[in-house]
Design brief:
The structure holds 2 protein chains of 2 kinds.
Chain A: H1 2-12, E1 25-30, E2 44-50, E3 56-61, H2 64-67, E4 72-79, E5 86-87, E6 97-100, E7 108-116, E8 126-127, E9 131-132, E10 142-149, E11 152-158, E12 165-174, E13 182-186, E14 191-194, E15 201-210, E16 223-226
Antiparallel strand pairs in A: 2-3, 3-6, 4-5, 4-7, 7-8, 7-9, 10-11, 11-14, 12-13, 12-15, 15-16
Chain B: H1 2-16, E1 35-46, E2 48-50, E3 56-58, E4 70-85, E5 88-102, E6 106-126, E7 129-140, E8 157-167, E9 171-181, E10 189-200, E11 204-215, E12 241-254, E13 257-270, E14 272-273, E15 276-285
Antiparallel strand pairs in B: 1-4, 1-15, 2-3, 2-14, 4-5, 5-6, 6-7, 7-8, 8-9, 9-10, 10-11, 11-12, 12-13, 13-15
The chains are: A mainly beta, B mainly beta.
């Protein structure tokens, strides 16, 4: 209570003459050469990627020699349709990773990062290439059919038409065999699955994966086919 | 600006001109109207600290970042002791501090009046032993404890202490022990001191001084004060313990004046900068 009272006194200016002494006060003074922007080490290897829950993850690197002078980093962002960057946090982050959860789907963002010393001197900014926000996983393939072809099975399906589809993930299991499922990847329909045991029956499910690594649910129900000889 | 200098000078002069003589500190209480006034400069500079576990480690503002750091403290201490009569005496001191933390890219510095300490003492005699009990309070002087490095904890402390001493022509020995309740998150401490002095003729004395404080609790709340704003280690706000020991010498150019030079080396501690602390003081006895 006393401390609060004294803080109020201090704020109100009703302080002792001593409190206003010459040379008293607080400072955070930059030390040469780090009083110059050019001497403050900029973040290294900046990259931005979308993660599987739809955030954009900004990562950079700061080796020990950079941390000797850098207290933290400011992350800034703009959308590609504007030129002005906005600082995302008022306080510098001490981590070399920033998770941006406040993004819109299918909007392209540009990130840049600046190092800052304890005295508030910032480095030159480092900018990453634009990256697209992706908050939506692709839809699961539908109308899946499987037919025997020589040396395997041919899968045909319809995808959701999302523009960022990267590939399709096939989960297959040999029927009647107590074996774990196998996974194959392909770029689209039709998709030929080879390397199967000729004459053996398999079931297949397909999921779509987008460029952010987000994956749809697997198609249902599973389709069955006998692998060609 | 000139007004501030004048106020500071007036305060120092008023403190220095408080009336009348005495012997100072320990179990002795000055006779009515006698006084002991001392102005001293304190200096400490170190790159090491005792951490919360008591291990001697490099001083780091941010514990997670290995960065060469120096902690430096300079202070002007103005101390006064005055005999009130009837076995009572009053003591007080005020610290004008500058704390500085130097890193490769930044110097963090805070300076100004820190804490004022006021003490009321009742003295007794038991043969050669002079002993006293005292009540003490320490008040923060309007600084902002969130500024790093802080000048003090920002909280009011209170203490009760026992002081004792014996003296002769050849020297003196004195001791004190007490209990100090800290304001804020810091835990209660028990301060202690032992001092021995040998008189070498009429003018010179040699001093050995051991002092410090222990803590009544460890861990949990005891370590809260170790972290200031921004997650920084801030010695002034820490709940700390220390044991320090050192030599000193005093010279009396005149019976009413005393020059003293002392050093202390910390030998143990927690949440406390390590190393040497130096004091150069001049005192006026009336």
């Amino acid at each position: 209570m006393m401390a609060r009272m004294m803080a109020r006194l201090r704020r109100s200016g009703l302080v002792l003459g001593l409190a206003g002494c010459v040379g008293c006060g607080h400072s955070e003074t930059p030390v040469a050469p780090y009083d110059s922007t050019a001497a403050v080490p900029a973040p290294r290897d900046l990259r931005v990627e979308a993660d599987v829950v739809g955030r954009l993850v900004v990562r950079w690197r700061a080796p020990a020699e950079d941390r000797r002078v850098v207290d933290g980093w400011f992350v800034e962002r703009r959308v590609t349709t504007t030129s002005a960057f906005t600082q995302l946090e008022t306080e510098a982050t001490a981590d070399t990773v920033y998770f941006d959860d406040d993004i819109d789907d299918d909007v392209r963002y540009v990130y840049r990062v600046r190092s800052v010393t304890g005295a508030g001197v910032t480095s030159l900014p480092v900018e990453a290439p634009p990256v697209r926000g992706d908050r939506t996983a692709p839809s699961a393939p539908v109308a899946v059919t499987a037919s025997s072809v020589s040396g395997g099975v041919l899968l045909q399906f319809e995808d959701g038409g999302e523009p960022d589809l990267a590939f399709f993930d096939v989960r297959l299991r040999q029927l009647g065999a107590n074996l774990p499922p196998e996974f194959r990847q392909g770029s689209g329909s039709p998709l030929r699955v080879g390397g199967l045991l000729g004459g053996a029956a398999y079931e297949f499910e397909i999921a779509a994966v987008d460029s952010s690594g987000r994956i749809s649910s697997y198609s249902a129900p599973a389709v069955e086919a006998v692998a060609g000889p | 600006m000139t007004g501030r200098v004048a106020r500071l000078a007036a305060f120092g002069f008023a403190l220095f001109c408080l009336p009348r003589p005495a012997a100072a500190g320990g179990g002795w209480v000055p006779a009515r109207g006698h006084s002991y006034l001392e102005a001293s400069f304190l200096h400490a500079s170190t790159g090491d600290t005792y951490d919360a576990t008591g291990a001697l480690v490099p001083y780091r503002r941010l514990s997670a970042i290995d960065r060469p750091t120096t902690y430096r403290e300079d202070a002007l201490s103005l101390f006064a002791e005055y005999g009130l009569g009837g076995g009572f005496g009053a003591e007080g001191d005020v610290l004008l501090r500058r704390a500085r933390v130097s890193e490769p890219a930044t110097i963090f510095s805070t300076s100004g009046p820190a804490d004022a300490r006021l003490l009321l003492k009742r003295g007794f005699r038991a043969g050669a032993l002079a002993w006293a009990v005292s009540l003490e309070t320490r008040l923060p002087l309007f600084y902002d404890e969130s500024e790093y490095p802080a000048l003090g904890s920002g909280f009011v402390d209170g203490a009760i202490q026992w002081h004792g001493g014996v003296g002769s022509q050849r020297g003196w020995a004195q001791a004190e022990v007490g209990l100090r309740a800290r304001g804020g998150p810091a835990v209660t401490e028990w301060p202690y001191a032992l001092q021995g002095g040998a008189n070498l003729g009429r003018r010179w004395s040699l001093i050995v001084d051991l002092r410090g404080n222990g803590l009544l609790a460890r861990g949990g709340e005891a370590d809260v004060g170790a972290v200031g704003s921004e997650g920084s280690f801030d010695p002034a706000r820490a709940s700390s313990s220390v044991l320090q020991l050192g030599p000193g010498a005093a010279y009396l150019p005149h019976p009413a004046w005393r020059l003293a030079f002392q050093g202390w080396r910390s030998v143990d501690g927690r949440n406390m900068p390590a190393g040497w602390k130096w004091k150069l003081g001049i005192a006026r006895l009336r």
